[in-house]
Amino acid sequence: MRRPISAPHTTNQTKEVKMAETETVSEIQSVEIAPVVGVGAFAEKLGIPVTSVIAELMKNGVMATINEQIDFDTAAIIGADLGFEVIVEKAEPTSAATPKVKLPQGEGTVRPPVVAVMGHVDHGKTSLLDAIRDTDVAKAEAGGITQHIGAYQVKRNDRWITFLDTPGHEAFSAIRAHGARLTDVAIIVVAADDGVKPQTKEAVRYAQEAGNHIVIAINKTDKTGSDPNRVRQELSEQLELVPEEWGGSTVMVDVSAKSGDGIEKLLDMVLLVADVEDLRARPAGPSEGVIIETHLETGRGAVATVLVQNGVLKPGDFVVAGDTYAKVRSLEDWRGKRIKRADPGMPAVITGLKSAPAFGDAYYAVENERQARDRSVANQRQASIKSMTKVKKIGIDELSSAIAAGRVQELNVVVKADVQGSLESLLDSLNALGNDEVAMKVVSSGIGDINESDVAFAATSGALLLGFNVSLTTKVKQLATHEKVQIRLYRVIYELLDDMRSGLSQMLKPEIIETVIGELKVLGVFRTTKTLVICGGEVLSGKASAPSQVRIKRGKEVVGAGTLTGVQKEQNKVSEAVEGEQCGLNINTTTAIEVNDRLEFFTTEERQRSL
Ligand code: GDP
After folding, report:
1. pTM value?
2. Which residue's CA is the nearest one to ligand 1's atom 25?
3. Strand 532-545 to strand 29-33: parallel, antiparallel, or no bridges (unpaired)?
4. Ligand 1 in reach of 122 Cβ (< 6 A)
5. Which of 9, 199, 427, 526 has the smallest number of Cβ neighbours within 10 A?
6. Cβ(126)–Cβ(137) under 8 Å?
């Protein structure tokens, strides 16, 4: 909770001064608190009844119950009012951070490489993952049941390879978020009939940033019209990925996910590049790794797939996973088979979690339940501080005060994206759109497909729902139609931004373009009523033509305005009189026009501005 303190409260400070005068000055007691603290816990720290804290909060305009959290600034003000100095507790790095084990060179045991498949939409990531899975003999052993749990393993020449089967860039944003490396090799799929596309480039960048080895799978080579060599050329020219066979260092394999051609060679190449890295892990001791999938199951509660990176994971272990924890109740491999241990490089499914952790959360085993609980709470606290800082960073407060002052018009949006990385860059770009008149306002954002609550949120806040690389069910679509919520789905970031830019542009007040068409000197005024003047004069420049707007000038001053509704030449109605001609004029105006006034005729046109 973060609520502003409405007005500084001074009563108790005065009391304190009085006390200091009558009693001997006692030292102000200082208490240390976390950056966010529960009201109850805060009262306990101060050693005063919680009702006093709540009362003090209320005096300051903050309505909070014993279970609510207040931030440090609020606690500091309340504390001062109650005669305490409140200081922020030093962070406990060990409780919230993930222990990282770096193995000395040559130590540990060899582990399977972990591979992610990425590439432009429709180039065949899913098909390729399926084709690879089909080469797996283990699949037959499990009776053909293949669950999608976020990862699987295949055996090639007696060696295991672990594949993350979450398509897209999720694996890489997890790495970004946690600073750890999840995958070793990135297979970038490029369709031989389509070539290098924006998402291909993005995928390569992600993989390179994460320090992964890149293996290019040139897919759909079975298709007529496919041109693998053109793909090689594009990769060389546009991304400086030069194929080995052309003297470069990038492994490129022609494959067909449809026919299965080239898949085994692709696996061999993955093992080959993995060998270069000499991938090792700590084979014993407490387990640690990353959460790569989570979901809720009736009867089993929160279920997570973990990728073990070091140590051994066993049933009964206590593990902290992000802001939750588990006593591992059951442990299964990717085929759904119960196992007694999961070793490094292995994906495994665990149950026994208190709640579902997030994709990309680190997990690690601890000694007992108490430690597990304490550390998950510490992680929760860190997460809530992070989200608060995030809100601050976006500067919603500044924006909304400008909106309230009527200076800025806002375009409300709810944003959903497939992964954290895309979401963050989208939010940054959206916030950068706009100017001092119009702005984007992201009222809600998140990762994952568009769901009912997103629609509800968009409906209540009158927002446009934007989805990037996400989808929605028919049910959600129907709800959106019913709630009159507009949903727009995108696969390319700049298309989304272009649309939003033009949306904002339409909200800009149009620019008024004025064109002066002529000037006339008034030589006589024949009739003046409250709203009409009939006068005559000589056109000095340009022309007098009706209809047009009129500015009435007397000397250097503009004394009024009106509309020219008719022009006459020698009693005859004409459309215009040109320079040097004399004419009569009908002008709708409330200004009494006088002889010698100059009339300037002009037209205006509204022009839509753009950002
Ligand atoms: P993703 O969006 O990258 O996961 O792509 P998909 O795996 O969904 O494939 C997109 C389309 O391409 C589907 O219609 C596939 O059947 C088709 N496709 C994928 N791989 C191949 C291939 O090797 N050959 C042919 N002919 N079609 C393929």
Report:
1. 0.54
2. 220
3. unpaired
4. yes
5. 526
6. no
